[in-house]
């Protein structure tokens, strides 16, 4: 497989988790927006920062709109930004298992700062684990390609 070839995880899309749709009621919109903002601040300090080249505030808004929708709140994402098609929207970003784990860890760490029920946090992380596995679209970490290329070229 070429390093930049789109990879499709064999597990397919994650199943829906009805308990996740109760979290909007339990956590409320301001907390969800704060959580997403904390998550993005952690991304800024992470190894995958380079992937995020858009406007941070807009990225936070879109991500929060999507999460609110998934957690059973208003359909902000679809109303403002159109059909979700999340896997397709991520094709431009080379996401292998390594990037997924960094992304996931940022959410896990951000969540620790919130006084939510433990079981609810587990439900949310379980959802993110399944959904992020479905966002994986590269088999290898993207930089391996560059390492191989630089070794193979004459300058
Ligand atoms: C698996 C690791 C993931 C990585 C590395 C990743 C990376 C990215 C990047 C680089 C962007 C563009 C941000 C910008 O505008 O600068 C983005 C957008 C977005 N991501 Fe992810 N993502 C991942 C997983 C997920 C998951 C699991 C979800 C949802 C559960 C998600 C939801 C979104 C949303 C809603 C957007 C905005 C899309 C748009 O309307 O343009 N991402 N992601």
From TrEMBL:
Keywords: Heme, Iron, Metal-binding, Transport. InterPro entries: GlbO/GLB3-like (IPR044203), Globin-like_sf (IPR009050), Globin/Proto (IPR012292), Hemoglobin_trunc (IPR001486). GO terms for molecular function: heme binding; metal ion binding; oxygen binding; oxygen carrier activity. The keyword Transport applies. Gene3D superfamilies: Globins. It comes from the Bacteria. The keyword Acetylation does not apply. Belongs to the truncated hemoglobin family. Group II subfamily. This is Bacitracin resistance protein BacA.
